[in-house]
Amino acid sequence: MPDQTHKGQLADQAFLFGPEDGRAPEDGATADPIDMQIVASTYRSIVDQDAFEDMIASWAAKLDQIEPETGRRRGLSQQLFGQLMMARHTLETLDIPAENDPLKRAITDVPGPAVVLTPDGRVAMANIAGERAFATKQGAFLDTEVIAPASLQDYTALMRAARGQGNAAQAILTVIPPPETELPPFTAEGYMIAVRGQSGAHVALRSLEIAWEPSVSARLREAFGLSAAEAEVARLFFLLRDIDRIAEARAVSRLTVRTQVKTIMSKVEAPTNVDLMRLLAMIAGREAMGQRGESPVWQDPLGREDRIETPDGRVVTWTWMGARDGRPAVLLRGFPMTYILPPEAEDRLRRAGVKLYALSRPGYGNSSLHKDLDVRQDNQAALRIFLDRVIRQPCLGIGMSNGFVPLLEEQQANPARFHALMAIGYTGVLDRSGIHRLQPIQRTMMRMAAHTPWLAELVAKSAHRMMRQHGVDWYLERAYRTRPLDMRTCQNPEVAALIRNACEHLLKQGHGAFVRDLQLAGAPIDAAIEALTIPLLFLAPVLDGVFDEMRYRQIERRNPRIRVEPVADAGELIFYQQSRLIVDRIIELSRAPQPA
């Protein structure tokens, strides 16, 4: 992923080195214990996934020293800044270690097509070859037409077992790619992957059609002590997968082959034929020179992405849900790892005649991020291009958490843009006092973004590395483990693939968009709230850890066009926890008469 960080003069450097009397901290001064903790935890966080919280805790204490509101503003020492620069350089030059995410490993450990499915059949992950051969994308449902009729019963049994309704833990299947791919049928293994904290299992489907290099036989003989005859039987077993055909090829009896296969299974410690096939496929895949299951860049799981490219090089992309020719509504996603509706919710939009455009804001997915503009200018420019060229009429604007800010600012600049606005989730965007009620990681990152964005980028870069190494579950656990409802939503296999896709949508271009989003969440909006001349409905999740109903009733009193609707049994991931309610409100507001 390209690095979107700023390489020039640090915008916040004056703050970092500006103690109250204007003099930099003396280099000979006694080292601050907090500084030492910061340095130690920063370097540890490069290799230790559990050190990230220690780094955040140290920075929280440091920010208490340097933020202006404390009146203590000591600044950073040159020594600490030098160590941080070295840590940043280390992060930029180190390779990402091997994936520890079991789902990601399932698609990268083989050179051929591979996909991982949620228990309900949605694609959680796929490599490039898998997207083509299985005719699918991350977040979409697998079309069972690609499973050969003779294998469909085994596939169905495997998927039932993933939902806890059977015990078919593995299978060998025949896959028939769609005719337009011009790919031949191939044999694939299917097996279950348990994911910590989830009730159902994921299912991996991986091609077994891998070339058998001569070095594979040598590897088996060296690693497992197979004889030359046994290595040859293993090769034929991998290629032919049939005892009778192996016996015919070897000109020996069927009993002889069966005995040799059992001996091979004992030596390689493979309890079943499927386990033996998987082991042979893994070894053959690793011996295939330079071939790996390449992970794709993010793509629209709905297969509907469209784009605008402007003469100055800006790219604005979007997808849509609901009715193809329906009444337009525009959705801007924000912090929560959500933006694609579950199928049943999209069906309701379709029946109601609403077309919900999901715009990829700058730095998300395939929409370009422009670092020569600040985050508010960048977002407003992209939104304005989309509204001018695609929508061309007043519509409903929907913002999730900080994604609401560009809509509100554009409405203030162009009052005829929307006939109504809707804000969803993360109540800290409209109630800034809520930032102080955030969990430690989120609160510290928000403080950094507001006062020391360079430090926020350094911490985000470390977190991005951990996500690439350990998978998105590393982030989701830290973001939501203190909020049981949100954590259960992350572990719900029915929406897990959509949440993973939303993570990839944000991180496709690196960590820069995340830091800019932190800054966007702190943009001043009071003037726009007071000047608002169209209805605004705010769906406020009462369990997001921030919501304070009294504060929101004060916002209602400031502008009678604003209505706050507290939503019970909803946290930051309200989009999936209360999808029906959200769709109901979208349908209602999209039908609202336009102002005269």
From TrEMBL:
Which InterPro entries does its entry note?
Answer: AB_hydrolase_fold (IPR029058), Sig_transdc_resp-reg_C-effctor (IPR016032), Tscrpt_reg_LuxR_C (IPR000792), WH-like_DNA-bd_sf (IPR036388)
Q: Which GO BP terms, alphabetically? A: regulation of DNA-templated transcription
Residue ranges occupied by any HTH luxR-type domain in the UniProt entry = 223-280
Task: State a single Gene Ontology molecular function.
Answer: DNA binding
Name of this chain's protein = Pimeloyl-ACP methyl ester carboxylesterase
Which organism was this protein described from? Answer: Gemmobacter caeni
Species lineage: Bacteria, Pseudomonadati, Pseudomonadota, Alphaproteobacteria, Rhodobacterales
